[in-house]
Amino acid sequence: MHPMKFLKPALSRNLVKEDIPDALAVSYEELGSDYLSEKDFSETIESDSAFCKAVTYDGQFAGFAICQVFGPDNVDDMLRLPDSPERDYFLSKDRIGLFDSTAIRKDLQGLGIGTEIAMACYDKFVSKRTDVICAMAWKRVYGTINVEGVLRKMGMTPYLEILGYWNRMVDSRGGHDCPVCGRPCKCSAVLYRREM
Ligand SMILES: CC(C)(COP(=O)(O)OP(=O)(O)OC[C@H]1O[C@@H](n2cnc3c(N)ncnc32)[C@H](O)[C@@H]1OP(=O)(O)O)[C@@H](O)C(=O)NCCC(=O)NCCS
């Protein structure tokens, strides 16, 4: 399932405290200045339910993925879905795995590194016996979903698109500071999922 695109070794491992400055720099550039904070990474490292993977390429930090595992009580807090059959679907599940935030350093994108870290997260979801895995994929205002190829490799397919979603996910005045379209963000989110 892993593509063999990379010319040098890409390796996934658990993110550690010392990686946080590198992870924050990638997040700032790729996901926006207000999307993840140092606290988000440190809380994930210490959490029992969430986990965070780092990926290195030729020994250098290349990117990260934050994932959550939760039950029906946290569906609204985690996914913020509108009243819909999709929300009802997740409310009926006991263990939900969310491939939450991921970003690869801009100069290393397209080499298969995002797929490598996604597969490491997938394996972890399997070991945690999730009933379903899902992601809210960032669809840029001009229509591209960069992470789509990665999600399809994890076996996920799209179900629902939510406009203006990212402004609801950050606590910033005036909306999300999007690295593509500015503040407020005009991009949308597409819910992908796969029953396990
Ligand atoms: C999305 C992202 C994590 C993918 O990581 P990556 O290392 O570039 O991905 P890979 O090289 O493993 O490529 C996986 C698939 O995605 C496709 N892909 C890669 N970059 C892409 C891009 N910029 N736009 C569209 N598709 C892209 C590739 O074609 C590949 O499919 P293929 O193997 O069938 O050709 C990375 O591009 C990124 O950090 N983007 C900016 C932040 C972002 O959008 N994060 C996701 C938020 S939901």
Sum this structure up briefly:
By secondary structure, the chain is α+β, with helices and mostly antiparallel strands. Helices cover 30% and strands 28% of the residues.
Secondary-structure blueprint of this entry?
Elements: E1 10-14, H1 20-31, H2 38-46, E2 51-57, E3 60-70, H3 75-79, H4 85-91, E4 96-104, H5 113-127, E5 132-139, H6 148-153, E6 157-163, H7 165-169, E7 188-195
Parallel strand pairs: 4-5
Antiparallel strand pairs: 1-2, 2-3, 3-4, 5-7, 6-7
The structure holds coenzyme A (COA).
Coenzyme A binds at residues 3, 30-31, 102-104, 109-115, 137-138, 144, 146-147, 149-150.
Order of helices and strands: EHHEEHHEHEHEHE
Instruction: Walk across the major sheet and give the strand order.
Output: 1-2-3-4-5-7-6
Shape estimate: globular
CATH class: Alpha Beta
CATH superfamily: Gcn5-related N-acetyltransferase (GNAT)
What is the number of strand segments?
7
Number of domains: 1
User: What is the typical, i.e. mean, pLDDT?
Assistant: 95
Name given to the CATH architecture: 3-Layer(aba) Sandwich
Sheet bearing the most strands, described? 7 strands, mixed
Distance between the termini: 17 Å
Tally of DSSP helical segments? 7
Distinct ligand kinds: coenzyme A
CATH topology: Aminopeptidase
Strand content: 25-35%
Structural class call reads alpha+beta
Using the CA coordinates, give the radius of gyration.
16 Å
What percent of residues adopt helix (DSSP H or I)? Answer: 25-40%
Spans of at least 5 consecutive residues with low confidence:
none
